[in-house]
Amino acid sequence: MTGVPAWRGRRRHAGEFRLPMDGTMNAPALPAPLILNGPGDARVEASAFGAHLLSWHCRGQERLYLSPNAGFGAGKAIRGGVPVIFPQFGERGDGPRHGFARTLTWEAEPADPQAARLSFRLADREETRRHWPHRFEAGLDIEPGADRLRIALSVRNRDRSAFEFSAALHTYLAVSDIATTLVHGLEDRPYLDSAQAGAACPASDAPVRFDGEVDRIYADTRRPLRITDGEQMLRCEAEGFADTVVWNPGEALAAGMADLAPGGHRRFVCVEAAQVLRPVRLEPGEAWTGAQTLILEGSAAQYRIGG
């Protein structure tokens, strides 16, 4: 800030792990990641598997959480980083949970140092049409800056008829301790509580705290959010995405997650730019883009009052 055995990796920095690039008897190989150095010490690493952003290093720290127990393959997504959710969110559809984009290999475009961007593309194929019978082209662009990161998801309708979809960037932000982490900017927004069977809840008039499982969908969240973690503060901006999902499994639920290390839930918070409650509708030939920008800011002291 489940399926296969744990990754065997070497620790690089606190909370940061190197996933193995070679397969084993029990786990397939992860495609070699693309690495891009940005301004200053900014660096990102992403895999063509799921167009998955694995690491964002900026200002001397790893800013994303990646579980040391993460597994992948055979419909299994990587736990941590930024999974891409498309074309459905959760079980809100007839396809795989959270869609198929995060568990398919995308095409990595040649890195362009001049553009300072990593780009991936995914087009419909037989495997996708079994779950979602539409012709489409999706793209993911990752752009690191000196103090920020921008991730943009685009979708184009290549079919002869209109279709609808949901999408989200399931961002795992690394934090020092979830108990001292707050999310500001949602105080006046009602939400659906997925931890309580989707119950509709009124605005809380307070920052989001994490005293147990938190799984909320906030609608029409158009202004920037701020995540404070002790002395640090990060601003989260969204374009094209109308909703925000805030998630942490809490201790009880995390204990049953094989791809999360003991106590791992304390080291991240998911603040997701999402389009869930009103799916995007595209006519033939139309395109949509949604983006999330994460910006490192100064002291969190100005947000302590009421926090």
Overview of the molecule:
It is globular and about 50 Å long. It has a single domain (11-303), classed as Beta-galactosidase, Chain A, domain 5, CATH 2.70.98.10. The strands form four sheets. Strands 7, 12, 13, 15, 16, 17, 20 and 21 form an eight-stranded antiparallel sheet that branches. Strands 8-9-10-11-22-19-18-14 form an eight-stranded antiparallel sheet, with no helix packed on it. A four-stranded antiparallel sheet has the order 3-4-5-6, with no helix packed on it. The protein has helices spanning 126-129, 250-254; strands at 11-13, 16-17, 34-37, 43-47, 52-58, 61-62, 84-85, 107-108, 118-123, 136-144, 148-157, 163-169, 172-174, 181-184, 191-193, 199-201, 214-218, 225-229, 232-239, 243-248, 268-282, 287-297. 3% of the residues lie in helices and 40% in strands. The active site is at 170, 272. It catalyses: alpha-D-glucose 6-phosphate = beta-D-glucose 6-phosphate. One of its GO terms (biological process) is carbohydrate metabolic process.
